[in-house]
Amino acid sequence: MAAFTLIELICVMSLLIIVVGVVSPSLSGFYRGRNLDSEVRRFYSLTLYGQQRAISEGMPMLLWIDPDERRYGLQAEFSFQQQDEKSVDYRLDENVAVQFERGAVAGGFGLGSGSASTSSSAQRGTSSSVVRAAAQASRFGRNTGILRFEADGSIDSSSPLAVGFYDQDKTGMRESDRRKSVWVGQRLNGLSYEIQTNQTAYAR
Asked: Pick from 54, 75, 79: which is nearest to 65 by CA?
């Protein structure tokens, strides 16, 4: 029975190494894109869960995003419940970064480092929202953005209009070949958030 010679095995291994070297960059980009999509869908699911909890438990819920610590989560508002046994806490994928579109309240609440420019429609805040924003911001990181769902499931006017996710390299810099962000933003009726597929003013 004929067998492979050493030279034939070396040739096959060399061809495999060449193929892997050519395909690796494409596979790397593919998995980065999958990580971004997964992160966006997980965050969007958390907005739905936050609204459902707010309605079913009759208390405001806070969906917070800390770009400095690279974490986000959901919990009941502190003023209503000191400890939330149902709170969740996630860590951002190492290849994904986050940014905010300013909401109604400027100066820390609903904003983050790398925030997009203020939208002309983001002037809906009230004095009570400002006071509440300052109180909540003091409990989280300086650049933390907070989506607040009222007890009836509505979105508080101080919440960010949208949260954007994008790919970054190992140094934390935005990848030049993947400038496009994927945004989870408020619907036109302002009743909930959605993964926005249409090009918006801040999706750049």
From this structure: 75
- Residue 105's φ and ψ, nearest 5 degrees, are -105, 125
Q: Domains (ranges, CATH) in the chain? A: 8-196 (3.55.40.10)
pTM: 0.68
Q: How many CA atoms lie within 13 A of 182 on its CB side?
A: 21
- Tens-place pLDDT, residues 122-174: 344 455 665 555 556 566 777 889 999 999 999 998 899 999 999 887 666 67
Token code pair at residue 147: 């989506």
Q: What is d(CA 17, CA 96) in angstroms, rounded to the nearest whole number?
A: 30
Start-end of H helices in 58-166: 127-137
Strand order of the β-sheet with 193-196 is: 96-101, 162-167, 182-186, 193-196
Is the dihedral angle over the CA atoms 102, 108, 111, 114 positive or is it negative?
A: positive
Give the pLDDT confidence of 60-109 residue by residue, as tens digits: 999 999 998 999 999 998 766 677 888 999 999 988 999 988 764 433 33
Nearest to 64 by CA among 75, 55, 52, 53: 75
For residues 77 and 107, the answer to whether their CB atoms sit within 8 Å is: no
